[in-house]
Automatic annotation (TrEMBL):
InterPro entries: UCP028069. It comes from Shewanella intestini. It comes from the Bacteria. It holds the Pfam family DUF3450. Residues 1-28 form the signal peptide. Keywords: Signal. This is DUF3450 domain-containing protein.
Amino acid sequence: MSKVSNRTKIATALVGALALAGSNFAVANSLADVQKADSKIHASTATSQKKVDKYFDQAQDMLFEYGSVADERESLKSYNDYVAGLVADQEATMKLIQQDIDGVDQLRQGVVPLMFKMVDALDHFVDLDLPFNLETRKERVQRLKDVLNTAEVTLAEKYRLILDAYNIEREYGTKLNAQTGQVTIDGKEILVDFLNFGRVALYAQSQDQKSAWMYNAQTKSWDKLEDSYLRNLSKAIKQARGQGAPDMFALPIPAAEAAQ
């Protein structure tokens, strides 16, 4: 009875040990499976993280590129607005130029008669003025008349020549001028030195400096000067020619005409 019981115990223990060993083996297999699954999860997580990092970098690049494009768009918009303003200004300028071009014919129609009147007025003025540099001045007026009837000279050039002639006449009235010429006194031609004191007075002195005259604009003749003025007149002629130092001199001048 006791032997059977001992064998039975031994068998039971052996069966228990085998069962425990089988249980440990099963647990070991399950743990290995868990470890493999965990490794796969880690590997999958790493792969996913790489993809996430890749997509994040791409998103950052796209964001930077978008910002650059947006900045460029604003810059282009500002430039386009600037160019549009220039174009509008140029169009306005072109419009004004076209208006000027359209008015050229009208301007020409008004300027041409004006130039003829200016030359005629200058010719008449020389005739009425003191007769100094008379030949030169009359020749200048005649050249202007010839130019006005010349098609080869532009309208602008004709107008410039007329203004130059007017400017020369204006300067005559502000300077002391001397020149050599002839004057008819009592039917005789006498070689003299002329002196015009602007347009105030015109004098003539014989080259031997023994006689002198002053032009009378009212009678269109020459009035003889007293001998006391000969020295002063000689001094003034030298100053006008740059042959003497500036100095004071006394000469008679025509009386002012009474107002009408």
